[in-house]
Amino acid sequence: MSFLRHSRAAVKLFGLSASLSLVLAIGATSARADFSDYGFASASASVSTSQAGAHPDMTLQFALKTDPASLVDPTGLKKPYAKTQDLVVNLPPGLIGNPNAIPRCSMQRFVTFLAGGSGCEQDSQVGVSSIGLYEFLGRLTEPVYNMEVPSNDTVARLGFYAGALPYFINISVRSGGDYGLTAKLEGIPAVQTMVSATTELWGVPADSTHNTLRLTPKEAYPEFKSESPPRSSGLAPAPFMTNPVNCEGPLTIGLTSDSYQLPGQFSAISAPLPAITGCGKVDFQPGLTVTPTSREAAAPTGLDATLTIPQNETHQGIATGQLRDATVTLPKGMTIASGAADGLQACSSAQVRLGEDVAAACPDAAKIGTAEFDVPALSRRVQGALYQRTPEPGNLFRIWLVADELGVHVKIPGEIHADPGTGQISSIFLDNPRVPVRELKLHFKSGSKGVLANPASCGTYATSFQFTPWSSPVPIAATTPMTIDQSCATGGFSPGLSAGTTSPSAGSFSSFAMDVTRKDGEQNISGLSLTMPPGLLGKLAGIPLCPEAEATSGTCSAASQVGTTTVAAGPGPTPLWIPQPGKAPTAVYLGGPYKGAPYSLIVVTPAQAGPFDLGTVVVRAAISVDPTTAQVSVKSDPLPQILEGVPVSYRDIHVDVNRQKFILNPTSCDPMSIEAQLTSPAGASAGPSSRFQAASCASLGFKPRLSTKLSGGTRRGAYPALRAELKARPGDANIARAAVTLPHSEFLAQNHIRTVCTRVQFRANRCPAGSIYGHVRAISPLLDLPLEGPVYLRSSSNPLPDLVGALRGQVDLDIVGRIDSVNGGIRTTFETVPDAPVSKFVITMKGGRKGLLVNSRNLCASPSFSVVKFDGQNGKTADQRPRLKNSCGAKSRRESG
User: Domain range holding 227?
Assistant: First the structure.
């Protein structure tokens, strides 16, 4: 930065000379061929003490390479190869200054020297600089002043005169690297040719050992004095420079410079410093308080954390240790709140501009909190922010601690670890900047979308912490309490259920929706079973089942999809809803056999919210069908309770089964209910139900038709076979009850009832072959293939065995008929018929030696009629007297007797 920017007086007195000299210097480039030889000849550095945390006088010396062919000026200096334009000095991290401890000289006071004034106040002097200038009348020893900073881009500024020309050293923090200090002299006056310089900055400027170096600008020039009469600073001693508090490794000061003739081509050199010793004398006594912003049990909350490190700021003492590593572990039960992810964005390394000494550009939607630093070296408290870092696989919860004020660009990465089993949170910040901090306050976002969730029950909880200083590898470990004492009545378990079809018209297709809800603060839901009302069925025909491998991974094809799901999870009034806009959709697929059930649902939920992707959650649910009523029940696998360390506290589980023409309403309009069975991880259970009733059943027709036929012998005592065929019209109400009474021409052949399957054998599917007396087949529009199977005689609580048709196929159903006698005729009554559409039903019973019927007379003598009574699911009836067809009139029929 050119001195021409800082003083109109300087412009008036020296502008013409400077401009002319600069033109001559730059114009000479065409006549010289050795500007590339420009660079440092030597550099050295020293401190008056190597004690860690002490306040040393630091001396830095350098000299530039000179042209041996150049003339020697009156002071014995030879001319450098080029004129220095910029000089940059990088101090090692931890070697710091505190400009706030010393009065600052204003620019107005500084430039009064140019008009014959006294310049800066003596109490603002922090050192001296001895400068060798080519073609000058003597070597200058100049006072160095602590200056007011010109803008927020500078942490500190030092100023001095070299003769009558001002020099300014702007000091910044290397925020893009190790947070050490960088001093820059930019735009060094080109009218002067710097050859060498020795600068001494004082550890304690008010110390009496510096009294003979408190020069005035006039004494330095034009009187060329190198010492002053003994003068006191007039201030109480205060430290200005401080040694690092880390004793690891060598320290160096790095110097770089370029020239006006070859700008941008920098020469570099380093000057070693003595190793720092005595770190065992450095004190480090940090403290921490952690307070939730809400003291309600199980509620979303923010967090206020205050780190205090008492500083020894006396000039005689040793500076306090600086925080290197910090690990804070919150109490068990305090977890990440999933609701905070709603609308949250992340800040990438590119957006935070990591490695650059510029302000961060994180999106505001990535902000999860605020920060406040109290650093002795800064003029006031610095305000900052906490941002969500871009997640990485296996490392999702990362944060940036950012501040961009007073010339400092803090960008500290932190890690948040959530225990995958318990959700307990640990925050880790490693290799923090080597700067003293009196206090650091962090405030994490609070309110309904607070980033954390309090423990589920009231009590006093302990946060543990480990702080390791730069001065020692031994951490300081302790705990700090927090109290949760509001809204303590938590832990109940009374979830609700709302379920049903969106259009309840009887016998029609409709979407089905289910909502299971849980109140905030109650025990979580871990298990879910649902029992549908009789007749609420799904049409399996035409749906390809998701193969087992794809079902396990949740990669089923769209052809198997039957619905979607929506899940709300998290504490407080604004839980997180998944799926979020723009994220992967959820899906419910129809799968094959699972855990002994013939079908299953595969519920696929991508756990994506904000910048987070916790993977795809696949929950399988077995679909069972009651073999007697065809009633459907769904039992889910245990619901995930924690994902990547984030508890999944279910608030609403919503399922839409919305595939067209899949869910079919019952044809019964009786009041019914959908029953749920819910469990919690603690073993609590609840059985909420939701009322269900189909509508408009009276509008459904009911005209089933049954035909019966005997085949085989027609004479008295013959044992004919029987075939009964039932047909129903599409759209009619389904049959609820059926009773078929054969005419008196047929008796029950009890002498043929030999082997009967027991109920135990039937349940185990181990009926003996001898108990099979016929065959049954049913065709339903809900299925791709007919159901069919044997007809058994099975033991009954009645005197006669039951007639059971074991329909097997896509589902298994048992059609049970009770056999008895009414008015001398054989009657079979099917008391419970599933409310399911059947377009055709055929039952055939064997004749001959396995026949259960015997003719009581010659069938050809007169026709016989059965009595059939049908009750519809909608309450309508259909009574019939179909003729019992037989073999009379057939050619060459041989009776079997």
Answer: 3-273
